Amino acid sequence: MYASKRHSTLACVSLLTCLTSQLCSAAADAFKGDARLAVRRSIHSIEMSLQDILADLTEQTGVNFYADETVRGDRATLIAHEVPLRESLAALASALRFEWLREGPVATAGYVLRLSPTQAREMENERAALVLAAAKTIREEAAAVLAVSGLTDKAAMDRAAASSAARVTERDPDRLRLLTIEQAVAEQLGGRPDWTFAMSYLSRLDTEAIVRAISSGTTEMCWPKTPGCAPFPEEFMRTFMKQAGSPNLLTISGLGEFNYARLRLIGELGRSPTLQWQLTLSKRNINGYTSTSYQGQQPLTAQASSSEVVGPGTLEARGDLCLRDFPGFRTPAAQSGRHAFASLGAALEALDAAAPVNVAADAFQSTRLSAPIQSGRKLHEVLSQIARESRHQWGIAGEFVKVYSQTYAVDRWAEPPSHLLAKWLQRGEAGRLELDDFADIASLPPQQLSSLMGLALRGIVPSYLATVGQAKLHLQMWSKLSRADRRKALAEGLAHADLSAECKALFTRAIQEPFSANSTVLLPTDYAQRQALSRALLRVEMRETRIWGVRKQGSSSAISATSRTEALRYFQQSLPKVELKDIQSLVSITVRFNYESDAGTLARSWVTLPTRWDDVP
Questions:
Q1: Predicted model pTM
Q2: Distance in angstroms (rounded) separating the CA atoms of residues 386 and 389
Q3: What is the distance between the alpha carbons of residues 496 and 574, in angstroms, rounded to a whole number?
Q4: Angle of the 501-511 helix axis to the 472-480 helix axis, nearest 10
């Protein structure tokens, strides 16, 4: 945050009428009579946590500003040019749908920013409405899948073409919606009888059950009954087993008569709520199991999104920005070497550099522009494009432009807390991320963990954070253990019988989880259920492996080699100027979760922690 040096040449947006009643009432109620907040200030905070923004303002002004625990993990962008402080504070609260509360007498008052109970309820209602709409679509799509799953590829494509043609002249909204679903399903699922099982189940669920499935994070249903999984209704399984004798399904699965089935539903309440599913059919016996899996995501049809909102007064008086030298809003993606479009905050900062304007905006980690911004356009046109490419809305509030997400209630709910993410990133950069950190990450609420995994896969945060998913259940169990229990697990072993009820449930699910890429289950199902658990132990091993790496110009790479000299020969193939002194030692730590009994190993899983340089103290 700093005071802008451009305010003397600034031609800011100036509207005499306050165009947002919430903004005016918030300022009037909380800041009335406090002369300290009438001082004009310049603020430049780009995608900072509210805790840091308010701490900086407290240091500069001597007025105590606090972020309540309900909002301390939120981030924002706030740019102001010689604007009364009360207006900047009000714009910040308005853009984020928060409120200010005064504490103490006016002359020495402090101010607390919080999420009001009313706004919290409104956000809950918004999320519920989005999930309900998605649940209805999922049921309709499941029915449509069943209708086309038995068709040949040609027949399915003919069905899709007919639906597309019918949509051209259809005027009834409900019928048009069903035709859209039918076309999408027929185009993507023609000749796919392997989806019949999952869609049969989803089509029989009522809307409320699908809402629960989306909102609960992960739901698993198994046949026959398995600890840690919900059972399939027997009536449904009897019906399906009759259908499973069809040649098509058995040809696809390659299993003959399977004796184990699991349907995993993974709900993601993002901007467009979805329900991912994974169907696994297995033949399990005393020697282990063979299985085949199918997966998909519902709904297939895109959810409609609202268009950007432009407030009264379109800023046309600002004229043509002539942004011929405007940056393309591209920044290097973290760790990946690829390029990703810039965040909303970076775009607004670049816009402010070209045509200074007062802005208050949310700053979700996941928000990225989907295309570069065109140059040589007017200010209101650029703002509209930034909003459109980031799925945001914008409007005028006093002297500020407010930019806010179209799906703010969902985005905020799914955002990993900024203060926790900052801590993990800092520890990761210092080579200090440990097993306990990974356990804390794995224990985030399902929607936040899913968002964090998405950020890692997109290169927005370091990719090593995504490795938490390799052993999520095991890490979640580790997070619930006391320090004494962790020491036992790392030494002689921690007995299942000594665990809390919550940890026992996670233990049971963990040893029944053969479908993770980093897991091996050696235990027949019946034996696991009836005998092994009572005598089972958890042993955790930390295995260190030393490898060689090179750091150059802020980037790094590593290789497993028998010697430093061998590593040098490898790196010189792509970095000819690398010398032997540039090759340094790294430590890679693999955490192994071993589940044992007197009968031998029941299951094992592992996760690899981020490598650290040997020279890190």
A1: 0.75
A2: 5
A3: 50
A4: 160
